């Protein structure tokens, strides 16, 4: 998510000129969104696949899976292949791949729409309009793709030999039949929405501030001419990655308790304490009362820091390659 926010902030959509003999601005813009959608989706899938083992372990630790609850991050990364084989590190990644394409498309298009609306209708500009638009776009994308995230978490939480769901379709059918229909797919939505606003807001604000300060005080050291417009100065790739990583780390730290609460609520009947964690307040109270802050509300946070750098690196690198492949520059 931090990668998507940083990409949107760093690479706003260029104006699309009307060419002679073309279908006009609208048709050309549609083609641009389609190519941007494909580029962002591929980049997101590559990034998520790279850090999928860390995501699987994060889910297991956040929800205190009884097979791994006594382990730390590194020991869990060793234990999962021993118990479930190396493919066990990628459980739930198929559902994530299905989710990341529409998520990236919705977030990008919503970000541009909200940014234009906030600037033209509300008269807000600068860092503030990016903060507001990013938060609103993130929440829109989350709401639209949330059922896929719930299924992905359920599959990632399963341990070999103790499967509740045989696959993505079976998980959808089972949750719908046993957990109240469509409402079962939106368990944990409230902490997700409440966590998204500060997460996306802080990500955009931090990244934008670091970029602005860096280019203002050390343009030669940190910046380079843009490949599609030599008159515009942009951050060098490795500096871009560093700024995005710092922004993501700060945002994660602030919003992480909501992430833990969301994961436990998403797991629903899979957890034995299901009836004690029906609401966001009950879940937070249960986690804090039984596990405290460091081992409860912030359990697995170090894993998020570890996965931030490679995720950002793969997302940015793949996105830049796809931009060239799809002629987006």
Short description:
The chain is mainly α and 329 residues long. It has 13 helices and 2 strands.
DSSP E strands, number: 2
Number of helices: 13
Question: Which structural class should the secondary elements be placed in?
Answer: mainly alpha
Shape: globular
Largest sheet: 2 strands, antiparallel
Q: What gap, in angstroms, lies between the N and C termini?
A: 23 Å
Cα Rg: 21 Å
Enumerate the spans where pLDDT stays under 50 for 5 or more consecutive residues.
Answer: 1-26
Q: Strand fraction band? A: under 5%
The percent of residues in helical segments reads over 70%
N-to-C series of helices and strands: HHHHHHHHHEEHHHH
Strand neighbour order, sheet with most strands: 1-2
Question: What integer is the average pLDDT?
Answer: 77
Tags for this entry?
mitochondrion; MCP_dom_sf; transport; GDC-like; mainly alpha; 329 residues; repeat
């Amino acid at each position: 998510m931090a990668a998507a926010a940083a990409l949107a902030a760093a690479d706003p959509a260029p104006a699309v000129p009307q060419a002679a003999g073309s279908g006009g601005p609208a048709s050309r813009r549609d083609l641009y969104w389609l190519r941007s959608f494909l580029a962002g989706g591929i980049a997101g899938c590559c990034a998520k696949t790279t850090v999928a083992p860390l995501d699987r372990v994060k889910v297991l630790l956040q929800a205190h899976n009884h097979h791994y609850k006594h382990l730390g991050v590194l020991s869990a990364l060793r234990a999962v292949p021993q118990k479930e084989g190396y493919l066990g590190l990628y459980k739930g990644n198929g559902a994530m791949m299905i989710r990341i394409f529409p998520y990236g498309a919705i977030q990008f298009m919503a970000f541009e729409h909200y940014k234009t609306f906030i600037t033209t209708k509300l008269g807000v500009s600068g860092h503030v309009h990016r903060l507001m638009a990013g938060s609103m776009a993130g929440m829109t994308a989350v709401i639209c793709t949330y059922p896929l995230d719930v299924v992905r978490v359920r599959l990632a939480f399963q341990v070999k030999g103790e499967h509740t769901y045989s696959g993505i379709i079976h998980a959808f059918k089972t949750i719908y039949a046993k957990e109240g229909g469509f409402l079962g797919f939106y368990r944990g939505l409230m902490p997700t929405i409440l966590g998204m606003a500060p997460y996306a807001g802080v990500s955009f604000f931090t990244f934008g501030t670091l970029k602005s300060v860096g280019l203002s005080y050390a343009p030669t050291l940190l910046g380079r001419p843009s490949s599609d417009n030599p008159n515009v100065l942009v951050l060098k790739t490795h500096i871009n990655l560093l700024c995005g990583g710092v922004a993501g780390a700060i945002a994660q730290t602030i919003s992480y308790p909501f992430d833990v609460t969301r994961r436990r609520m998403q797991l629903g009947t899979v957890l034995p304490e299901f009836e004690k964690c029906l609401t966001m307040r009950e879940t937070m109270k249960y986690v804090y009362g039984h596990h405290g802050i460091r081992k409860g509300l912030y359990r697995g946070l170090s894993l998020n820091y570890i996965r931030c750098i490679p995720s950002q690196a793969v997302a940015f690198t793949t996105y830049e390659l796809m931009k060239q492949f799809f002629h987006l520059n």
